[in-house]
Amino acid sequence: MSLAKLEGELLKVREDLGKAKQVNASFEKVLQEMSILRSRSIANPRTKEQIVSELKDKEILDLFASIETDFEELRQEMTKQSIEKEGILDFIESIRTKRSFSFSETEKTISFLENSMDTLDASHIAVRPEFIGLIDLNPLAIEMGLMKNNGGVIVERERFSEFIVALLAKKMFHDLIFETDKVKIVLKTYREVSVEAENSSIRALSRLAKIPALY
Questions:
Q1: Which helix (H) or strand (E) holds 167?
Q2: How far apart are CA 108 and CA 155, in angstroms?
């Protein structure tokens, strides 16, 4: 299978997963209704007799049993895939040079950015808008006395925290690129970043992303 076809298959799987989530949500509603029937049957024998009588003319029980059988087969297949997947995940982590991270809080995003610069021994960070014209860093460069560079600014590591605070204060903490000689970090939103770097750096930052924020 070519890499292009592999990518196409992965996109199809992701699309089908959306449908699977809908199926799971629908089945959850079914389980809730079945639980109600069960509770009513246990609470009142006459109610149970009535439910049994009404079910005679319906396919509910056979359908439920059939669906449960299908789910069990799917669970077994997923268990088998999980075993096979472990080696593949190790392979992926050993070659990837790009990775995205999502954080639950803005403070964790800030912690990740600052600690990334320490981990990769950055002395200076080039910061620029991801899209031309979206964010104007010139006023901030003048205010903080920063060197301008290709529509952005150069920030010394010692002033990086101060710079982040300024971005937050001016509601500019988004759609920015932070770049050093070892890494390119794209800040999409307050809580989402994507990283491009050598694999060793990606692995180091992946470990860093799992460390709780220092705030």
A1: helix 160-169
A2: 21
Residue from 115, 116, 134 nearest 214 by CA: 115
Strand order in the sheet with 147-149: 98-102, 192-197, 183-189, 176-179, 124-129, 152-156, 147-149
State pLDDT tens for residues 31-66.
999 899 899 989 998 888 888 888 888 898 899 899
Backbone φ and ψ for 204, nearest 5 degrees, come out as -65, -40
Task: Compute the C-alpha angle 199/15/202, nearest 5°.
Answer: 10
pLDDT digits (tens, 9 = 90+) for 92-107: 888 999 999 999 999 9
Confirm if 114 and 160 have CB atoms less than 8 A apart: yes
Buried b (16+ CB within 10 A) or exposed e, 51-89: eeeeeeeeeeeeeeeeeeeeeeeeeeeeeeeeeeeeeee
Q: What is the pTM of this model?
A: 0.71
